[in-house]
Each structure stands twice: as C-alpha cells, then as structure tokens.
Amino acid sequence: MSHDTGTRERRDDPEGQSVVRFDHVGLRYDLGPEVFRDIGFTLPRGSFHFLTGGSGAGKSSVLGLCYLALRPTRGGISLFGHDVTRLPRRLLPRLRRRMGVVFQDFRLIDHLSAMDNVALPLRVSGAPEADIRRHVPELLAWVGLADHLNAKPPTLSGGQKQRVAIARAVINRPDLLLADEPTGNVDDRIGMRLLHLFEELNKMGTTVLIATHNEQLVQRFPYGRLHLDAGRLTWHGVGDPPPDRATAVPPRPRQS
Ligand SMILES: Nc1ncnc2c1ncn2[C@@H]1O[C@H](COP(=O)(O)OP(=O)(O)OP(=O)(O)O)[C@@H](O)[C@H]1O
C-alpha cells in the first residue's frame, strides 16, 4: 500500500489507524533557522513511543506540533485522522480535549490545590463530583502524593509538581498522551512507577509519546523510538539508532 493519505482520505477517515501522522513537516520559529526539514512518521493507534535526541534537537517542538500549540511551516499533520493543517481553528479544541499533555514546565495553576489541579479536566468534561472525590485522591496516592492533596503548587518540590502534572494529564484517560521529560525531576524508583502508569494507560488504549533524555528508561522499556538529530528524524524503530543514522529512515515518497 502506498503512503498516500491525501486530504480527502484523511478527512473521510477520522478514526483511522494513525493517531498522529507527520508528512514532510518543516518548522521554523519566526525568522530563525529551520528546526526540522521534512520529518515524517506515523504513530498507530495504541502505540507507545519514546522521542529522543540531544538538547535542542526539537523534541518539545514535535510535541508542540502534536498538541497544536505550533503550526508547521510546511508539510501536513493529521491527528486522529483529521488533517489539522486544514481544519478550521474553531474545531481544534475538540481534538485537544482528547489529549493529555505533560509540559516540561508543568503549567499547574498555582492558586488551586493539587487535588483541584488534577480534577480540572474531569470538571471540564462534566464528571460527577462524587467520582472526582473518589478518583483524584486515588491517583494522587498512586503517584506518591497522598499527603499533599491540599498542597498548592508553589509549596511543592519540582518532582512533586511533575507528578501532579502527570496525574492531571492521565486522569481523563486521554486518547493521546504527550509527555515532555516526565521523569526529569524524580528519582529512579518514582520514574519507573510513572512509566508503569503510562504502560497501564497504554494497555487501556491510549497512544503514548514521551520525550526523554533518560537513556536508562528507553533501554528498560522496549518500545518504539523516534530519534531526532540536527533537524532530521534519524531513527524510527525499536532499540538504539544504528551507528550510520543518516540512512536509518528512508525519505518518504512525496505525494503528487
Ligand atoms: N519559542 C521559540 N522561539 C525560537 N526558537 C525556539 C523556540 N522554541 C524552541 N526554539 C528552538 O528550536 C530548537 C528546538 O528546540 P526544542 O525545545 O524543541 O528542543 P528539545 O529537543 O526539546 O530540547 P531540550 O531537550 O533542551 O528541551 C532549538 O534550537 C531552540 O532554540
């Protein structure tokens, strides 16, 4: 089968098998240099991938494109089968609500307690308050914050804030989880526990993409890997990028 997924097919196949699809995507910020040239990959429904690469390789930018904070300078991106480069802006929030995002800088609401930060996506989606009172403390206890339900973010450590941010991202069982360095501020034991949480979510059907510098984590969990180097996607597979990474990802055929 060819890689051709023209606009018509993407529009007519909103629940197709790819949750994220990049086709020849390029990105530059304002008048700066191109961060990427011609990146293409697909994340199938229910898949689990790490996104790796050195500092400045473009990991957060890929995530920003996925959660629609950024628009590509060229190429096409589809999410849940919708071509988002053509979709009217008013329809984007509906797609965003299907995603859980863990930001590198957490983006918690400082005047709300940990409990209320995590409850936010449930309240937005109209979940009954009784369910919120049951599920949120359970999840916060699972990430080791049972004693901090009422703490406000400014009183929490970096690792504790990170776990609140993760709980908020997963509480709604999103269709797509995007996490930027989700274990960057926690010790190994908690890092493993968080990875197990992502695995559980993945088993229930969530597609997972985790940007990380943590090689140990990537080695311990045998999932797919997208590796960025100098503005190019140089490896898309399981395990380590081969030494001659320049040839690891063949260019995708351009659509006519
Ligand atoms: N808002 C911005 N304006 C201009 N340039 C930016 C902006 N954000 C990122 N960049 C540039 O884009 C490139 C990729 O940055 P990005 O944050 O995506 O990399 P990263 O792989 O996530 O890095 P790190 O691992 O250090 O977080 C870098 O050269 C960075 O300077």
Percentage beta strand: 15-25%
Helix-strand category: alpha/beta
* Number of domain modules: 1
Using the 3D structure, state the CATH architecture. 3-Layer(aba) Sandwich
What is the compact description of this entry?
This protein has 256 residues and is of the alpha/beta class.
Describe this structure as you would to a colleague.
There is one protein chain. The chain has 256 residues and is an alpha/beta fold. It has a single domain (18-236), classed as 3-Layer(aba) Sandwich (Rossmann fold), CATH 3.40.50.300. It contains eight helices and ten strands. Helix 7 links the parallel strand 7 (176-180) and strand 8. Helix 4 (114-124) crosses helix 5 (129-142) and helix 4 (114-124) packs parallel to helix 6 (158-170). Mean pLDDT is 86; it is low at 1-13. It binds adenosine-5'-triphosphate. Residues 29, 32, 35, 53, 55-61 line the site of adenosine-5'-triphosphate.
Provide tags for this entry.
256 residues, alpha/beta, Rossmann fold, 10 strands, globular, disordered N terminus
